[in-house]
Write a structure and sequence with these properties.
Helix content: 25-40%
Largest sheet: 7 strands, mixed
Order of helices and strands: EHEEHEEEEHHHEEEEE
Number of strands: 12
Bound molecules: biotin
Radius of gyration: 17 Å
């Protein structure tokens, strides 16, 4: 089924990812989308909150049952789709920061939270959560993130037409998810590299459970991992956070 054919809208929920998990457990069709006008406990990556003011942002979760095991590609393909949808509907080019950030002029515009459920070692479902700041004014963000976040309205000085954006988003998600299902990881990785905020050769500071470290960015591999050259050795990371990009 095409992504976005079935959309369930609610006024409020803790997290659209929570609702989507319930629907997936009930056997909802692949491509079903849950959208909420607000979230009372929106989640970001790394256990952070995702601030989800009423009627200001897009809070959406997709239910997927992929057979391709390279699920680290999913936040990347979703980022590409959101970027394309923004480009098609608003004519602006936002940046992607591996693995799940949408950035405009160093400020966070949106992010992807991919959560998986396994039955034993078999993947049961994936919930792909998309958060995008649409119509926030500066003061709609809490003071602690005000200087770090932005919205499409702040960028364009215009109220965002959510319907137009969503039509482009379902089309783009459908395209990239189809490629993912066909095992075209390299095409996703290459497109991500072309749209990334940093380029091969840039120095990156990354952080993971072993602490902070630096290396030279060499690209994205066909499974969605970030390739870092560390002292002449190529290492692929699937879970790490970018702390700084040092353009040299
Ligand atoms: C990030 O930290 O960058 C990821 C943010 C993801 C937020 C979205 S909003 C819809 C879905 N429901 C959630 O609770 N989180 C995701």
């Amino acid at each position: 089924m095409k992504i976005g054919t079935i959309i369930q809208r609610v006024e409020s929920c803790t997290s659209t990812n929570d609702l989507a998990k319930i629907r997936a457990g009930e056997g909802a069709e692949e491509g079903t989308v849950i959208i909420s006008q607000e979230q009372t406990k929106g989640r970001g990556t790394k256990g952070r909150n995702w601030y989800s003011a009423k009627d200001k942002g897009l809070y959406a979760s997709l239910i997927l049952y992929p057979e391709n095991p390279d699920i680290s590609l999913l936040p990347l393909m979703a980022g590409l789709a959101v970027k394309e949808a923004i480009k098609e509907s608003l004519r602006i080019s936002v940046g992607l920061q591996w693995p799940n950030d949408l950035i405009w002029e160093n400020k966070k515009l949106g992010g992807i939270l991919c959560e998986s459920d396994f039955l034993g070692n078999r993947l049961n479902y994936i919930i792909l959560g998309i958060g995008l700041n649409l119509n926030h004014e500066k003061e709609d963000f809490p003071p602690d993130i005000r200087s770090l976040a932005t919205s499409l309205k702040l960028i364009t000085s215009k109220q965002v037409n959510e319907q137009a954006l969503l039509q482009s988003l379902w089309k783009a998600l459908d395209h990239w998810y189809r490629l993912f299902c066909q095992g075209q990881g390299m095409r996703i990785a290459q497109a991500y590299e072309r749209n990334s905020l940093f380029s091969p050769g840039d120095k990156l500071a990354l952080e993971n459970e072993r602490g902070e470290f630096t290396g030279i960015y060499r690209g994205i591999n066909s499974r969605g991992g970030l390739i870092l050259e560390e002292g002449g050795r190529m290492v692929s990371y699937f879970s790490a956070q970018i702390k700084a990009i040092i353009h040299e």
